[in-house]
Amino acid sequence: MLRYLSSEYGAREDCRTFLIPTPNFSSPFAMLKDICLGFGIEPKSSRNAQERLFNDFLVEEFAQDKNVILFIDEAQNLDNKQLELIRAILNFETNEEKLVQIVLAGQLELKVKLDNRRNKYLKSRIVMYSTLNALTLAETKIMIATKCQYDEIINPFTDEAIERIYNQTSGVPRSVLKMCSLLYLLKNEYKLNEIPIDEIEKIKDEVAV
What we know:
The chain has a three-stranded parallel β-sheet.
């Protein structure tokens, strides 16, 4: 979802976007430098200098009526110091508007971290929350059909196969797609005409459901 949003907004003339798909930084400064590089800003040798350069960039983009948007996926992997950096970045603002918009996405552990007292100031700056529920069986069928159509392959998943996949994954989209991918690979490897539904229970541990 974040890749889609980053691509859609990044294609607009009035937006500058950067996506961090998997945050894995040794320090907040390393994270800040990566964010700056993502926006084409040169690295500096100190955090203060890097923050000043980033702020200057944001002011310039604001003067050109451009929205700067930072997307961070798997944000549950951010530690408290890195979350504090996010809060500090959100302090870059004019008297009326924020200079940068930040979208955090992650597993439910992210909510637990934001509820921590150490992160209360960041939490107070969050404008909107959204929690995605697992898919229903009907939604799972639609997602699989749409994915097959997007990849230009004939949908090999029967209603029975989809129902068994759904039962093993509880409708979690990432787990559904990973299981479908494994089953499709098995089908092609053994030159089968149908998805090997008897393998579904055997591979459930591989998709971490």
